[in-house]
Amino acid sequence: MTNDLQASSSCCSTSAANPAAASSGHENLLAGASDDLTTCPVMVGSAVSKKAAEAAGLYRDHEGERYYFCCAGCGPAFDSDPARYAANMA
């Protein structure tokens, strides 16, 4: 008996082809997006595109780190207590 199983990539890997997307004919919207996505430190869990946030000025730099926001209201909230909101990203 031989073991013909090959190592496969994780279904969550964005660098490998998404077999589910390929078989359905849909575009893999997660491909290449992992480097651009983060979450808002104020509205925890809200996904943020770094590129879109930078283009809109929705970011702050605090202690050498850049934080991206999901909306215009989050920047002033972050400014009121940056350490508190930065801790949400740890």
From TrEMBL:
SUPFAM superfamilies: Ferritin-like (SSF47240)
Origin: domain of life: Bacteria
Region feature Disordered, mapped onto this chain: 1-21
Native source species: Agromyces hippuratus
Annotated Low complexity bias: 7-21
Example of a GO MF term: oxidoreductase activity
Gene3D superfamilies reported in the protein's UniProt record: Ribonucleotide Reductase, subunit A (1.10.620.20)
Domain YHS: 56-87
Protein name from the UniProt record: YHS domain-containing protein
Pfam families noted in UniProt: YHS
Annotated InterPro entries: Ferritin-like_SF, RNR-like, YHS_dom
